Records
---
Amino acid sequence: MKLVPTSSLGFPRIGPNRELKFALEKYWKGTISQHDLLQVARSVEDAAWALQVGLTKITVGDQYLYDFVLMMTESLGMVPKRFAHLPPGIDRLFAMARGVDGAPALSMKKWITSNYHYMVPEYDETSQIHADFSRFLEDCRRGVATLGADCATPVLLGPVSFAYLTKISAPGVSRSTLVDLLLPVYEALIQELVGLGVKEIQIHEPCLVFNDPSINPLLDAAYPKILAPDVTINMVSYMDDVGDTNYQWLMSAANGIHVVSLDFTRGDTLALVQKYGATKTIGCGLVDARNVWKFDPATALPVLKCLVDKGVIFRIQPSSTLQFLPWTVEREDKLIAESHPALQVLAFAKEKLQEVARLAKVAGCLLDGEDSEHLLSDHESAWKSFVESRQTSQSSSVRDRLQAVQPSDFRRSTDYLERRKQQLKGLPALPTTTIGSFPQTSAIRRVRAAWKKGLLNDAEYQAAMDQQIAYCIGVQETLGLDILVHGEPERTDMVEFFGEQLEGILFTQHGWVQSFGSRCVRPPVFWNDISRPFPMTTREFKVAQSLTEKPVKGMLTGPITILNWSFPRIDISGKDQAFQIALCIRDEIRDLEEAGCIVVQVDEPALREGMPFRTAERDEYLNWAVDAFRLSTAGAKSETQIHTHMCYCEFQDCMHAIDRMDTDVNSIENARSDNATLKAFKSIGYTKGFGPGLYDIHSPVVPSRDEIEAKLRSFLTVLDLDQTVVNPDCGLKTRGWPETIAALRNMVEATAVVRNEL
Ligand code: GLN
Ligand code: ZN
């Protein structure tokens, strides 16, 4: 049988037991040395290599300690002014990642469409390039020694993408001048890699998928200029197809690139191959590195057949680095013990390697003109039996209900102006409230953990939570807030709390993926149609409301946030999955209303981040995302005031969508910004309730009454008095009680001063 080569594009860096996370945190605390930290990083890398042995090409030099963009920034010596006084090296890298006295960290952004965050490079008026790639080269040398020069493949983030992602504030410097500055460094670096004996280098240029014509001159400037004659260059892109222009550029002989790695699991890469053919070796990213499912033969086979028919030379590989996936399914004892049906088709990073190997065999058969059925039969039967296991009466009733949804289900029964009069009567002007969570003390966390371990029974646990709720209500009453919250002591995480109670969503024990630096998340997995077997929040609401005459806000997470922070299904659309959750939220709001709730907040912090990066696809996403939110909330009575909360992002490119959500009050993170966002909302005619964050909850510093008062007055120069709501900029769960109480007291007092003048 013909052997089809295989390649990896990267493996999870955090380790099977989050070893790197714990080592980083110890290093930052000063309890281990830099040597120990690097030892851990290397042992994780060794473990990853050991699993990948058998692949034709394995990546090296990519066991970044914090983030790959930051590693590049540090090695280039391209630091902004506020870090210029620090000596180069790992500590400067961490200083840029986490900030040091007087020098706030680089900002963090989501990596393309993933939930990974990279550190945004900055080039300011004092920045210069002082490259030192010795640590990277040392890592690559270690890779070559371990895996051999034929296999070990160094990874570089390409100069065009690096410049594209950099925030440039130096006068007279453009992306193109920055690329020009980077070229000699890359040229020298590639020479040094050739000197190590490597046969191939991966250059990741993810900006190829942005389809932004401004990158084309930059690509032409860099390639083939920086390349060396004696090494194969594999140019890698992922998360989407590269579009017509970039595909043709990649295939052109002039750029010096030999292998073109493309994502065949997103966008329409196959159409590009069919349209233009492939004159270079294709790195066929057919194993989805962004999701936890085994490949579906029905979608993989047509791609392989097309490549074989067209006589394309190709390799099999994951669609991108596997860093977005947990390490292995083998650790999931609970799912294994209960023989969860999803196990048949789940694949984390380790299992994705087996998928690569299997597809390579199938491809080999196809090349030989042989039958590959036998290689796929267990795969097909696994999917078949999984799909059958999902067909429960529960799931068909979810589907029936979704089918029966009517256009009127997306509309509140009355218009905003009319229903607003019926809501929360008797509330003063400038009502004060908070975003939901109150300090999550270690005592609270201990109680939750003890209950999960079975050390506390339900009654004991609930009593402990109720005590917290009572304390929280007492504090808010004493401070004189107007719309109270129960404080969310029972929630570890705003998605996990709901996901665990919904049917059709599963949770892993060890499914950690890196979010940024040492921070890892364990995304829920959607595996079946989603329904709500019982009310999720009414008990805590009732406890809280029974303790006060003031209205207590019901607190829910919206469908888009739940979807965007999970691993979705691949057999139905994101829209359908969001709508299924929406129906659960809709029922929850009805139950809250029945329990006496007259104000409900449905948080959607992740609305903006699910937005596709290509403008052409944005409207479609925003339309169904807004519809999902409306399906969640439109069933509320006119008298029920619906709030939402959004944070972590700029809103300017989705304000119309936010307006269409038709919420009565929207509280947004704004404490660190001026009035630009407010003005922008005003300019599009946003007239509904608005609560821009008055102070920054991310910092332990207590804002003074005067500061808050000044900020409120400045908001009121833009917003109408009767649309303005007073609140901090996000939940308070990461803060301690003393600073929380002090800050809220100042907020309430500042509001009273402004109110008294009315
Ligand atoms: N209600 C949530 C809280 O207060 C909102 C969290 C968020 O915006 N990310 O914690
Ligand atoms: Zn928030």
---
Amino acid sequence: MERDVALKLVEEQLTEHRYQHTLGVMETAISLARRYGADEKKAETAAIFHDYAKFRPKEEMKEIIMTQGFPQDLLSFNAELWHAPAGTYLVEKEAGIKDREILDAIRYHTSGRPGMGLLEKIIYLADYIEPGRHFPGVEEVRGMAKENLDKALIQSVKNTILFLMKKNQTVYPETFHTYNDLIQNGR
Ligand code: DGI
Ligand code: FE
Ligand code: FE
Ligand code: FE
């Protein structure tokens, strides 16, 4: 899909702040794709649509998870996790995106998963380090992202888990599984 067409579709779904975040993820994802040899066009499209469902009503996202074959355990964890799988479904249905790699990058951009593909890693990381993100440790991960994709990804998953634990929040098991898989198989 043309970049301008995709951006128009997404802009309608998001707040101005979230749209600016999306533009940051897009630029970062394209640059990571170039650096690590992924398909730049797919990185662009996945980045543009990654938060497509972010502001859908919780009830709608819940309904999608219940009826469209997603893991039901998502519903007993933080609703912040729901926009990723719900987004996959809605982006396919409403924007006509059919590419499995792009849809998977959207689906796993919040929790990750064991055995993440290159595009999934790039979108997860771009979401974490885009220029609009300002939190402790982000600069360190930006540096790592220039050298070693897996190393940067491990650091961002680890930071996310620690951040959630510091706030006494639950951690979705898939997020731990992502961390363990990267430690065992990453570098
Ligand atoms: O949508 P974004 O804000 O750009 O970023 P995101 O989709 O990566 O994360 C959305 C929120 O989900 C963020 O506030 C942290 C939270 N989150 C990420 N992983 C987990 C999680 N929340 C829980 N409970 N468990 C997780 O494993
Ligand atoms: Fe998100
Ligand atoms: Fe993220
Ligand atoms: Fe995001």
